[in-house]
Structure formats: C-alpha cells, structure tokens
Description:
The chain has 232 residues and is an alpha/beta fold. Helices cover 41% and strands 18% of the residues. It is built from eight helices and seven strands, in the order E-H-E-H-E-H-E-H-E-H-E-H-H-E-H. It has a seven-stranded mixed beta sheet with strand order 3-2-1-4-6-5-7, with helices on both faces. Strand 1 (8-14), helix 1 and strand 2 (39-45) form a beta-alpha-beta unit. The longest helix is centred in the middle third of the chain and has 17 residues, at 133-149. Residues 97, 99, 101, 203, 208 line the site of magnesium ion.
Amino acid sequence: MKKSPRNISIIIPCFNEEECIDMLYRNLHPVLDKLLFPYELIFVDDGSTDRTLEILLSLSEQNPHVRWLSFSRNFGHQKALKAGLDYAQGDVVITMDADMQHPSSLISTMLTYWADGYDIVDTIRIDNKQCSYFKTITSRFFYRLMDFLSDIAITENGADFRLLDKKVVKVLRDCREEYLFLRGMVSWVGFRRIQIPYQAGIRYAGTTKYSFKKMVLFAVCWIPAFSTGQFL
Ligand code: UDP
Ligand code: MG
C-alpha cells in the first residue's frame, strides 16, 4: 500500500491580499476536505496594511484548521515562506500563493508523487500570457544569468508552489541564509525531486506585490548567494 501523510500543512504568504483570501479559502477547503487527512492552513501575513489580518482572524475563529502568523512589517515573500516552514507541523508541507495563480487542484497530484517516493514536488509555470513583456524579459535575463554564474540548476519559470517532505523542511529550517531564495535552496539541498508543469491561473484580484524595485533587490541579493565564485 502506498504511504499516506498523517497531516498536511499548506503555507500561504499574504501581502495585502484582502480581495483574494476568501476566494482562495473557499476554493481550497473542499479540496482539502476531500483528501481526508488532517490539515492545517498557515497564512503568513507579511505586514499587510489592508484587511488581510482581520480576515485571517475571522477564518481562524470559524475553522480550527486555519492558523496565521503576522509580521510587524513587510519582510518579503521569501521570509514569509520561511516563517511558515518553521511553524508547519505536517508530514508534508505545500507552499502556494494567495492570489489563485497556483491551482489547488494540483495538490492531489503532488501528493501522489510524494506517495511514490518523491521528497520534493516542484512546479514549472506554463505562462498564462498575463505577465507583461517587461516582466518576462527581465525574469528571463535573471534566470539566464543565474544559470551562467551558478552550478545549481535553477529552472526558468519555476514557482514557489511546491510540496516538501518534512525531512526537507527540517534541512531548510536549519539553513541560516540571510537572503533567502527558496527556488535555489530547494535545488541545492538534494533529495528525490520532480518538477511538474502547471497552467498558471490569472491573479484573482489586486495587483502583483512584486514591485520592480523588489525584483531588482532580490536579484542583487540572490546572485552573490548562488554564484559559484569561479571567477574570483
Ligand atoms: N507576497 C508576500 N510578501 C511580499 C510580496 C508578495 O507575502 O512582499 C505574497 C503575495 O501576497 C502572494 C505571493 O507572495 O501570495 C506572490 O506574490 P505575487 O502574486 O504578487 O507575485 P507574482 O505572481 O506577481 O510574481
Ligand atoms: Mg501572483
């Protein structure tokens, strides 16, 4: 018989996602109920200034499976994911965005791969053409540069939509990186990993929380962290 998890944690970082959370919750709830495993939904409020935290409080009062963490200010998506990983109790942990771009229907497929023995089920986005030309070009440039500078394979169109076995979560918890780049770290830690494609949805509401400035700052931090230093 294939293994099944004792419990599942879903981590969702949220920065000013008041318009998306209810819809995501209504979408996820039946998917998780159908799985018949105990689960926890961990929302990480990354210093939102809108009603995000108020909505999370109300959901956690309605449903004991809903938990939340709240940052004192905006620390960024990667730190929000890391806080969720530090807090998660599941045998398997799934990270996904709050804006419905990551289809919850893929969760059962991810679990099937985990049951087949994969420790990391990563995803590769098939574009929904919603990305601006500018974002597509700058992101492609970043990934090509990383590919050139680093020995670690970092897939273009990778996403922070993935399943991690608890033993991988434990290793990531122990990493004390100041500048987190989970896509790189997940590739670096090893373990049995598979990458599966998914059709990215359209952002349900609101606008991207990755400003151009944030993207440049992240690239500036990640490149030294993941380049091999072979030319130094
Ligand atoms: N996010 C976050 N902190 C930030 C920026 C983004 O927690 O500083 C969250 C955001 O709420 C969403 C996820 O990270 O759940 C991905 O952000 P977004 O959808 O805006 O990125 P995009 O899809 O445009 O690259
Ligand atoms: Mg998005």
